[in-house]
Amino acid sequence: MENKDTKVLSFWVSPFGLRVEWALKLKGVEYEYIEEDVFNKSNLLLQMNQVHKKVPVLIHHNKPICESFVIMEYIDETWTQYPLMPQEPHQRAVTRFWASFAEEKVLQAAGKAMMFSGDEKKNNAENAKEAMEKIEELIKGKKFFGGENIGYLDLALGWISYFLPVMEEAGNFHIMDPLEFPAISSWKKNFLDHPIIKDTPPPREKTLCHLQSRIIAFASRSGD
Ligand SMILES: N[C@@H](CCC(=O)N[C@@H](CS)C(=O)NCC(=O)O)C(=O)O
């Protein structure tokens, strides 16, 4: 039965929104999904995320929680079954460190590599790749970042498994060579094979078209 007390406001292709849904699904929490049009924002979104006006927003007992990392921690503290974060404070700090490292150094650089052209594309792809080398070291010898089970960091970095390949194709750049990143490649497989994750990524072709249209819109705005 759908739980009316727990709502997720998201956009079908949002990798940030999918993290939140994964966290709820892993914990077996029922929720209502509300699709948002980020190009024509609803009053509900503007009301629930007055600062950033972005998805995802988790609405729990009519109270909004914004920012996917904050939401995942809230979910972990609210529903204690299937802990996502390690229990030990130092391990928790390390987990948060790598989540923000990947967000700032890999995701942002990959986003710029996808959108920009020329030297900016090349430099950002190189920066993303350099940061990815650190992630490769981190996952070496492990099934998941969380150890034997999917944890917070797997969800935070989950976009690398299904979204990055589409970004690379749409933006014509290359970071993820399986020969250079064998440990990340086997993590990717383990992650995407997981029963909770398996059928959740948005359709690849639709995602590709969406990203291509964003690149075209960005280029026409910046006068390329
Ligand atoms: N740091 C945010 C990023 C959220 C984000 O960028 N969401 C996009 C959709 S993928 C959005 O709502 N964009 C609308 C806008 O930028 O106005 C998070 O982790 O939740």
Describe the overall structure.
Helix content is 57%, strand content 8%. A four-stranded mixed sheet has the order 2-1-3-4, covered by helices on one side. A hairpin with a 2-residue loop joins strand 3 and strand 4. With 224 residues, the chain is an alpha+beta fold. It contains nine helices and four strands; from the N terminus they run βαβαββααααααα. It folds into two domains: 73 residues, Glutaredoxin (3-Layer(aba) Sandwich), CATH 3.40.30; 133 residues, Glutathione S-transferase Yfyf (Class Pi), Chain A, domain 2. The chain binds glutathione (GSH). Glutathione (GSH) binds next to loops.
CA(first)-CA(last) distance = 50 Å
Can you list the strand order of the major beta sheet? Answer: 2-1-3-4
Work out the count of structural domains: 2
Average pLDDT, rounded to a whole number, is 97
- How large is the radius of gyration? 18 Å
Helical coverage, percent range: 55-70%
Low-confidence stretches: none
CATH level 1 name of the largest domain: Mainly Alpha
CATH architecture of the largest domain: Up-down Bundle
Largest β-sheet summary = 4 strands, mixed
Write the layout of secondary structure elements.
Layout: E1 6-10, H1 15-26, E2 32-35, H2 43-48, E3 57-60, E4 63-66, H3 68-78, H4 89-115, H5 118-139, H6 152-157, H7 159-171, H8 182-193, H9 204-221
Parallel strand pairs: 1-2
Antiparallel strand pairs: 1-3, 3-4
Bound molecules: glutathione.
Family: Belongs to the GST superfamily.
Domain GST N-terminal: 4-83
Organism: Acacia crassicarpa
